[in-house]
From TrEMBL:
Primary residence: membrane
SUPFAM superfamilies with a match to the protein in the record: TPR-like (SSF48452)
Classification via Gene3D superfamilies: 1.25.40.390
Ranges of residues in domain RagB/SusD: 50-154
GO annotations of cellular component type: cell outer membrane
Name under which the protein is recorded: Glycan metabolism protein RagB
Coiled coil stretches, renumbered: none
Organism: Sunxiuqinia dokdonensis
UniProt similarity note: Belongs to the SusD family.
Keyword Nucleotide-binding: no
């Protein structure tokens, strides 16, 4: 790989966990990352410790390559899309002790297409449903800046399980402090605990 450079390649970008989660050949979201190897071989499935693995490229919002080979990055980046609305509804249903499987399955049906049979989600415990929703959101929205907020909504334990740099003793760091100006101008506000 030393004889060429790939813009955007990051050996430290997608974690092995993320690449393994997205390595289902029947799920169209597998192509979210292009996996780069230095031996010219096809590597399926992804092996986390493969010495030939050099990194991965996020295969979203790449723009358009013009006739002259220039890349134009003027993609519209979605803020919310239908899958987001479905999975947020699944979260709400799960928190209300309702069955979120219809919404999870609607997202999976699109992702798996004709391979959907056998990948149906069946309602489980609240914790199982929460994990399934988080997994679907990770697969669906990787690279779109939603993961942190997904973990915060899921609850403190999920944040601490997923973010190694954050310790439960620093739980207050999950939430922002309120500025001095806002506190001074609104007597109903109280500072976020820990600040």
């Amino acid at each position: 790989m030393s004889d060429f450079v790939v813009n955007g390649l990051s050996r430290y970008g997608a974690s092995d966990k993320t690449l393994l989660m997205l390595d289902d050949l029947e799920d169209q979201r597998r192509n979210t990352f292009i996996r780069i190897y230095d031996d010219g071989e096809v590597h399926i499935p992804f092996q986390a410790e493969d010495p030939n693995y050099q990194g991965s490229l996020l295969n979203k919002f790449l723009g358009i390559v013009g006739d002259d080979g220039s890349r134009w990055s003027y993609n519209n980046i979605p803020v919310y899309r239908y899958a987001d609305a479905l999975l947020l509804l699944a979260e709400a249903k799960n928190k209300l002790d309702e069955d979120p499987s219809a919404e999870i399955n609607a997202v999976r049906a699109r992702a798996y297409g004709e391979n959907f049979a056998g990948h149906e989600f069946v309602d489980g415990t609240k914790a199982e449903n929460t994990q399934a929703i988080l997994d679907e959101r990770l697969k669906e929205f990787v690279g779109e800046g939603k993961r942190w907020w997904d973990l915060v909504r899921a609850g403190d334990s999920y944040v601490f399980d997923e973010v190694a740099a954050l310790d439960a003793s620093e739980a207050y760091k999950i939430y922002y402090s309120i500025s001095e100006g806002m506190l001074a101008n609104d007597s109903e506000l109280t500072q976020t605990e820990g600040y």
